Amino acid sequence: MSTPTGPVADGTPSADGSAAALAWWRTAAVYQVVPRSFADGDGDGVGDLPGLRSRLQHLADLGVDAVWVNPWYPSPGVDNGYDVTDYRDVDAALGGLAQAEEFLREAHALGLKVLLDIVPNHTSHTHAWFRAALAGDERARARYLFRPGRGEDGSLPPNDWESCFGGPSWTRTTGADGRPGEWYLHSFAPEQPDLDWRNPEVRAEFVDVLRFWFDRGVDGFRVDVAHGLLKQEGLPDALGRDRRTEEHPGWDQDEVHEVYREWRAVADAYDPPRVFVAEAWVARRERLPLYLRPDELHMAFEFDPLHVAWREGPWRRVIERGLAVAQLTGAPSAWALTNHDVVRQVTRYARSQPPEHGSNVSERARWGSEVPDLALGRARARAAALLTTALPGLVYVYAGEELGLEEVEDIPADLRTDPIHTRSGGRDPGRDGSRVPLPWSGQRPPFGFSPPGAPAPRLPQPPHWAALTAAAQARDEGSTLSLYRRALRLRRELLTGPEPLRWCEAPEGVLAFRRGRVLVQVNFGPRAVALPSGARLLVRSGPAPEGVLPVDTAAWLDVGAP
Ligand code: NOJ
Questions:
Q1: What is the pLDDT of residues 139-175, one digit of tens each?
Q2: Which atom of ligand 1 lies closest to the CA of 225?
Q3: Is the Cα torsion angle 251, 252, 254, 256 positive or negative in sign?
Q4: Which is the CATH superfamily of the domain at 19-121+200-483?
Q5: Which CATH class for the 501-558 domain?
Q6: Model pTM above 0.90
Q7: Cα 130–chain centre separation
């Protein structure tokens, strides 16, 4: 077999390394939107598609290449839309399908690709299939995982699995005669019954759903719980194994790959081919590349940056691990500093740092125990932005991180609706604090999120966000928004080619690497250091005298052609 020297069809970097060979999705900056939290166009206090459409210019000005929209399907909203009633429609509260089609047209006109979320592991309990299943329709029941209970009267769950949101993974149903019946599996909330992916009807349905959206011009999907669709045959007990860190019979089964091979063929049949990004949590990291085989998913999120401590060594290891997967598979790394499931990075970095890695649980557990130093957190978050936007692969930007928003930690308990909060009996505050409506303009809440006269948003915005509105930051050269704009513009110019990352020598505590003509330095260390002389400063994450890289600051320097 000869070595290819020209671009190959899917944009795999060619041996001659020509930048033109890279498909858009290999180097994109992707902006993630929670539609209900982004912008309210119709004035009901809830974000929607007219609101998103009205703010598309913000994304174009920011310099991203694509927008990823969290689930917009009709949904009772038990889990922020990850409980889908109908996969071929858009929630009326968001504007319905007609608004979605307008949004797609306008985004494309601005040169933005659009990724949606597909939620294949579970439906909502309000989905027509599940309603029919509960009503006793055997064919519909076979699309879910109903099982008799254990114990003499079936009053014990069929196995010992725990839901990711706390409590058992099983809920018992009531039969038509009013007597307790079988149980159904839900890896998340009871309102999110898991589908049985061994059922060919389920597989056929999702292929059809993919085509429905691809036919409407959607450029790709983020695959929710990509590792969870297939469960081990027989649903054996997990025997106390932790889903996140140990092999679990509910996660990461070999048969799941057949699903993605089928999906990839569907995506490849479109012109241009459509793409998938996996949310794949695997306990054994060596299994991640399986999802990224050339006939499966195009990329998978690197989740380590969501929790890694603000320290040089752990960050370097995270980057090396990500690049090793990219090297092995040919799939680009998909970097993100935050998303709708984790504590925003400003707040994560505002408290003392764990030795190597935190976790959702440990970060939320620290709330209240230590006053956050938000100025420190923000400085580090800005430096982290220059770090991740310079890495090879894609960078995902979660709405609001470009404004330097922190996690809102003082939301009253009765306004929190995240099932993680409710199912933990309030012990875990849950994820609402990362989904507070964005501040766009003005001096007072809702900061332009809704038009005048609208009811207040469900999740209150902190009054000090007056200083963080997009309008205020657009006027300020030193703002986080201006930093993101500058970084994304420079990234597009200088860092979206195939230039590999090469580590460089640097003073203690400073992480340094080079890509092409750009030298990146991040100072995690205890003291300010001198920047290399003779190099032109392209951008720095914080103010400093010329030639200096202060603590908790990053810089990009032009050091000339390699
Ligand atoms: C992962 C999503 O990111 C999260 O928000 C959701 O709660 C679960 N999957 C269940 O769909």
A1: 999 999 999 999 999 999 999 999 999 999 999 999 8
A2: 9
A3: positive
A4: Glycosidases (3.20.20.80)
A5: mainly beta
A6: yes
A7: 27
